[in-house]
Write a structure and sequence with these properties.
The protein is an alpha+beta fold. Helices cover 23% and strands 27% of the residues. It is built from four helices and eight strands. It is globular and about 35 Å long. Bound molecules: coenzyme A (COA). Coenzyme A (COA) binds next to β5, α3 and α4.
């Protein structure tokens, strides 16, 4: 596919456009049941995980959007996307994040999510970025909150499960820039 997706860098990781060569490490990452606890399908089953990667590799939307792997020291530690939503109306841009359990709790998903969000809102100039998070997925809800997403409702998405619907808007993204400096939120008065 003709891709214009950039490689993004954060303080501790690199976000590289998803390629065929990432299939095996992603399948191994999803062998951990925690990784698909809030998903309709069981991605610990190799065939399901392989099919999930194939669906992502078959992405044919706007070439500047799509799927990325998170690499640390050249090793795949996560997966993310920023692409037209399959669930929300109007092909709204939707973000998603998945971090291997052994790399959790250190802010790496926050860094990667922030880099994708910064890319979408500040570099591409998207009007909004949306995130659907299962209502019981506490770590992912905390991550959305840390990144400055606003919760705007909830609904049944991704296989009959309740999800909170979040949106991030330009100028309201919280935290540091992907390179670790400054703040993404402009100073506002009281
Ligand atoms: C959702 C998911 C990516 C969140 O991972 P995570 O490890 O909690 O996120 P981070 O890597 O950003 O780490 C944040 C945690 O580390 C802590 N932390 C440590 N150093 C940090 C730093 N420098 N910056 C930010 N947080 C830091 C935070 O306090 C936070 O802990 P808390 O949630 O207990 O407050 C992960 O749980 C996951 O992949 N789950 C399975 C897949 C999934 O459900 N994806 C979501 C689909 S909507």
């Amino acid at each position: 596919m003709d891709t214009k997706q950039p490689t993004l860098t954060t303080e501790r990781s690199t976000l590289e456009p998803l390629g065929e060569r990432h299939t095996e490490p992603i399948v191994r990452m999803f062998a951990d049941p925690e990784m698909s606890r809030y998903f309709p399908g069981d991605l610990t089953v190799r065939q399901n995980a392989e099919a999930m990667v194939r669906r992502r590799l078959a992405y044919s939307g706007p070439p500047e959007l799509g799927h990325w792997v998170f690499l640390r020291d050249g090793v795949v530690i996560g997966l993310g996307h920023l692409r037209p939503s399959w669930e929300l109306p109007g092909e709204l841009p939707e973000i998603g994040w998945y971090l291997a359990t052994e790399h959790g709790g250190a802010g790496l998903a926050t860094e990667a999510g922030r880099a994708l969000l910064h890319y979408g809102l500040n570099e591409l100039g998207l009007d909004s970025v949306w995130a659907l998070v299962h209502t019981e997925n506490a770590p992912s809800l905390r991550l959305a909150q840390r990144l400055g997403f606003l919760r705007v409702g909830s609904g049944v998405h991704y296989g009959q499960m309740w999800h909170h619907v979040h949106v991030a808007l330009p100028g309201r993204v919280s935290g540091k820039r992907p390179d670790g400096t400054g703040s993404l939120t402009p100073a506002v008065g009281p």
